[in-house]
């Protein structure tokens, strides 16, 4: 029997639901690590959505990881449909979280932080969910130059790096106020991996290399973080 539960993670300003899928280990989830995997934070980065949707299809058929997993394949459904970085308000959700260093000034035109921290529905849902759930690891799937950006202690990154050849980078070299890495990784002490899949790699490569690497990383989480 499958142990998957679909639920509504939140809702966008225009009323689109943000769907989430919760998977429980075959032997039950008690005392098991809980991982949040999200894709589609930036709607113009389809690679992370593809990887997330592949994980969903694979796990819907068979989920045998010894951990609890919550998967949000399209965190920014408006941006995914519009193929834009931001949501329909043109806000970059990865600059809008209520970090201590949040700033109303956009570093460049791409990085619109919104009118105030946590102004956007998607992030309100995320913060509320994180407050209600004890999570040991967050993996956020983006695309850019190939990189595993770690905020916090994430030994899983070494497993993923070995399978992908990607570099592990604790510091991407510029401040990211309002980002999930800063909010969850640094401030809330929830280790957060911002997984930058190489932009424009083929669909085949995502399925053959990136998806197995993510699953291997999750297996390492079960090995390391279960009580
Ligand atoms: Zn991104």
Main sheet makeup: 8 strands, mixed
Q: Roughly how many Å is the radius of gyration?
A: 16 Å
Percent in helix: 25-40%
Number of helices: 6
Following the backbone from N to C, one meets helices and strands in this order, namely EEEHEHHEEHEHEH
Give a quick rundown of the structure.
The chain has 227 residues and is of the alpha/beta class. The protein has helices at 46-61, 77-82, 121-132, 156-164, 180-187, 203-225, and strands spanning 4-11, 17-23, 34-39, 68-72, 137-144, 147-151, 167-169, 192-198. Zinc ion is lined by residues 41-42, 45, 142.
Tell me what the structure shows.
There is one protein chain. With 227 residues, the protein is an alpha/beta fold. It has a single domain, classed as Zn peptidases (Aminopeptidase), CATH 3.40.630.10. It has 6 helices and 8 strands. It has helices spanning 46-61, 77-82, 121-132, 156-164, 180-187, 203-225, and strands spanning 4-11, 17-23, 34-39, 68-72, 137-144, 147-151, 167-169, 192-198. Strand 6, helix 4 (156-164) and strand 7 (167-169) form a beta-alpha-beta unit. The longest helix has 23 residues, at 203-225. It binds zinc ion.
């Amino acid at each position: 029997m499958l142990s998957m539960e679909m639920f509504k993670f939140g809702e966008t300003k225009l009323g689109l639901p943000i769907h989430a899928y919760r998977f429980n280990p075959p032997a039950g989830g008690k005392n098991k690590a809980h991982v949040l995997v999200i894709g589609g934070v930036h709607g113009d980065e389809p690679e992370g959505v593809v990887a997330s949707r592949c994980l969903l299809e694979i796990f819907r058929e068979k989920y045998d990881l010894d951990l609890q997993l919550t998967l949000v394949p399209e965190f920014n459904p408006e941006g995914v449909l519009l193929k834009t970085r931001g949501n329909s308000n043109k806000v970059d959700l990865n600059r809008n979280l209520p970090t201590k260093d949040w700033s109303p000034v956009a570093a460049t035109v791409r990085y619109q932080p919104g009118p105030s921290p946590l102004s956007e529905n998607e992030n309100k849902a995320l913060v509320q969910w994180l407050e209600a759930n004890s999570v040991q690891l967050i993996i956020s799937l983006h695309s850019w130059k190939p990189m595993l950006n770690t905020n916090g202690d994430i030994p899983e990154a070494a497993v993923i790096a070995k399978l992908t050849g990607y570099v592990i980078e604790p510091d991407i070299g510029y401040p990211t106020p309002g980002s999930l890495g800063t909010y969850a990784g640094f401030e809330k002490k929830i280790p957060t991996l911002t997984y930058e899949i190489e932009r424009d790699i083929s669909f085949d490569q995502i399925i053959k290399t990136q998806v197995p690497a993510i699953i291997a990383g999750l297996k390492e989480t079960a090995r390391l973080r279960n009580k």
